[in-house]
Amino acid sequence: MTILRMYYTPEGANRPTRYREAWWEEDTGEFILHHGKVGEPGTTTVENVASHSEAEALLASFAEQNTHDDYVDINDLDQESCRVLIQYKGLAPTRVERTNAEKFAMEYTALLAWRGLGIVEAWDVASAKASFAFDVLTVHFHKAQKYAHEALRKTDFRADRMKIERN
Asked: Collapsing DSSP states into helix, strand and coil, what is residue 149?
């Protein structure tokens, strides 16, 4: 699945304010267009597309229209890298803590993605810090930070166990 992510940065702004993304779900035949203001849930439109070639044509048209509208590909933007650390209680995480870390990763990934904020690139156990480490790439650090706290509330981790570091 190819996802095209495009962002608009107004003249004089430090970071993008709007996003558009599109992809084709081959198994369901759905072409999905998602767009909105960075940091807020966007609007989603779904269209049924019969073939791979039709989906590719729609993606090409989407990219062309966005370029015309001064949107740029996410890979051409300066993004901020940060790390969310959630400390576990002992020297090694328990099974419950691992389950909570998985729940945090899924919730945080969804909160970032459906708001055009970025992605959780990877997560793992950071044994040296007795923490779970979530590596994040975002177009807006402060908004991504806000949603990390929201995702944490969906778990059993205590808020004082989380720390967010800029890389």
From this structure: helix
Asked if residue 143 lies in contact with residue 39, where contact means CB atoms within 8 angstroms, the answer is yes
| 112-148: pLDDT as tens digits | 999 999 999 999 998 888 999 999 999 999 999 999 9
Residue labelled with tokens 């790390």:
83
Secondary structure class of 114 (helix, strand, coil): coil
Is the distance from CB of 159 to CB of 74 less than 8 angstroms? Answer: no
Q: Supply the CATH number for residue 147's domain.
A: 3.30.70.260
| Cα R_g (the chain), whole angstroms | 18
Q: 114, 21 in Cβ contact below 8 A? A: no
How many domains does the chain fold into? Answer: 2
